[in-house]
Amino acid sequence: MDPRTRQAFALWTQAQPAVSAFVFALVGDRAVRDEVLQDVALAILEGFDGYDASRPFLSWALGIARNEVANARRRRGRFPVQLSDAAEHALAAAVAEVSDDDRARLSHLADCLRRLDGRPREICDLRYRADLSPARIASALGMQPNTVSKALERVRGDLRACIEERLAAEGAR
Amino acid sequence: MSELPPLDDAAFARLANAALDGEISAGDSARLSEAIARDPARAAQFARLAMLHDALEREMNAAAAGRAVARRTQALARFRRIAAIAAALVVAAFLGWFSLRTTPEASAAEIVARLVASAKSGDRTYVLRAVGASPAAPAVKRSGRPAPSIDGAILYVRGRGEYVLSRLDTEGNEVLSGSDGTRAWMVPAKGPVRVSRDPRRFSGALPGSQQGIAFIDPHADLAELAKSYDLTLKPASRTDALSRIEGMRRSDARGGPKRIELSYDESTALIRAIRLENLPQARGGPRTVEFELVDDAALDRDFFTHAFHHDASRVVIEED
Questions:
Q1: Which of A164, B32, B115, B151 is the one with CA 20 to 30 A from A90?
Q2: Which helix (H) or strand (E) holds B130?
């Protein structure tokens, strides 16, 4: 691997979680997201010579991701999530802004997930590991869809609170 | 800009989560878009939430292989259904089959007997996952349209041959097929309900059904498994502490998944997962399918009848 490719690879590895979250927010489907991410990675490698190193890499990668999402939309038609062009633009700017802070915050997520057990863990497992929608989880567990959605919101709220607690404890040390 | 009032925090969070859970309507998408485009703080809020969803997916999948102990305790109930089905599958044939084998497999008979003993009849709900599915080659119906996906399908099973398979079509509508043990049925998202006296009718979507191993009829599946597969015991895996029974399709067997794996907990004799590998690809679809137990709560007495799943006003066509 030549130095230029190594640099591209290193930058992409760092940016990939934020780009992944951005693409998923636009397409709402894991398989499509993964397909788009492959195309983004390829486009970054192919176009890295045109990257202006004075600009943030993440912003550049997010721009490429928007193009690849548009290409995927042309190939596949409608996605479950349909944000307007203005919203996509605003979201790309926001992801580039919040990315560094939130990457640090999310490093505590694994620890916080270990606290999760019982039904909340099961619902979380079905949503994020088995990739079932709240309606499908409700169907599988004999619950109301609204109950599952609220349970997921509670879980995410608890996880956010746990992350904040850990950050506060870290800051107090 | 639209004249809709700005969303309050709770309403924005609800729409943002609905979008990231793939359950947002077109109207709500427009409201969410407007809020994100109009207010950078809302855009940042949505970005953070999207990153949390993404990180959750990553962590849950990364943790799955490494939390064997937690899984063993919490998943006891979740996997009971597979235990019941798979143990029933191996009842007489396994015992008979092992009795014909040489000594290395002799201890397997004891384990199988334990699996059988731990199995209980009851209602079971599984989630099916397609592994290695090719998006470019989805299963195709005779009509030429893509078949509803087996990935994420939910399979409900009771007793002998009673099942309900719930899949989503490409537009996200639920397509149900099933059997009450005597009559098979299909409840499409639109159009008439079809009913047949052939209990195997409409079972083609079940992984392994073409080869008689659909994991819905213990006795028939058992006979086929014993006839067509060489079965061996595997030691407990380091990653999940589960022992395994592996079935390799015999060279003289016709069709069927090349490899079948039943994973079970050595201490409780519960079978916790079933994996069908190298499924025939002639009609597209996934190469590998995994069954994972998610619930064993009793279902309604009439759950396996077609009438339970549609309005009385739907047209029902009796095929025979």
A1: A164
A2: strand B124-131
Residue A47: CB atoms within 10 A of its CB come to 12
What does the domain layout of chain B look like in residue ranges?
Answer: 9-64, 76-318
Q: Give chain A's end-to-end CA distance (angstroms, integer).
A: 42
Give the Cα separation of B46 and A22 in Å (integer): 10
What are the pLDDT digits (tens) for B77-101?
333 333 333 334 334 333 333 333 3
Note the CATH architecture for domain A107-173.
Orthogonal Bundle (1.10)
- In whole angstroms, give the CA distance from residue B59 to residue A129: 9
Element (H or E) spanning B14, and its range?
helix B9-20
Question: Which strands make up the sheet holding B124-131, listed edge to edge?
Answer: B229-234, B242-249, B259-265, B270-277, B288-295, B124-131, B149-158, B162-168, B174-180, B184-187, B193-196, B316-318
Identify the segments of chain B with pLDDT beneath 70: 1-4, 63-122, 132-146, 159-160, 209-226, 237-240, 268-271, 281-284, 296
pLDDT of res. A1: 53
CATH topology (fold) of A1-105: Rna Polymerase Sigma Factor; Chain: A (1.10.1740)
Q: Is the dihedral of CA A83, A84, A85, A91 positive or negative?
A: negative
The ipTM of this complex is: 0.92
- DSSP secondary structure, A41-83, as one string: HHHHHHHGGG--TTS-HHHHHHHHHHHHHHHHHHHH---S---
Q: Which CATH superfamily is domain B76-318 in?
A: Lipoprotein localisation LolA/LolB/LppX (2.50.20.10)
Chain B contact for A87, CB < 8 A? yes
Residues A30, B149: contact at Cβ < 8 Å?
no
**Buried/exposed code over B295-305 (b: 16+ C-beta within 10 A; e: otherwise):** bbeebeeebbb
**What is the pairing mode between strands B316-318 and B193-196?**
parallel
Q: Provide the token pair at A140.
A: 């599988």
pLDDT attached to residue B230: 80
Q: Where do the domains of chain A lie? A: 1-105, 107-173
Q: Is the pTM of this model over 0.80?
A: no
Q: How many CA atoms lie within 13 A of A150 on its CB side?
A: 5
As a whole number, mean pLDDT of residues A43-67 equals 91
DSSP secondary structure letter of residue B169: -
Per-window interface: A 8-37 vs B, CB < 8 A: 17-18, 20-22, 24-25, 28-31, 35
Give residue B315's pLDDT.
92
Q: Residues 43 to 82 of B: which have CB under 8 A from any A CB?
A: 43-44, 46-64, 70, 74, 78
pLDDT tens-digit map of A118-130:
889 889 988 998 8
Nearest to B36, CA basis, from A71, A161, A95, A105: A95
Contact of B147 with B177, CB cutoff 8 Å: no
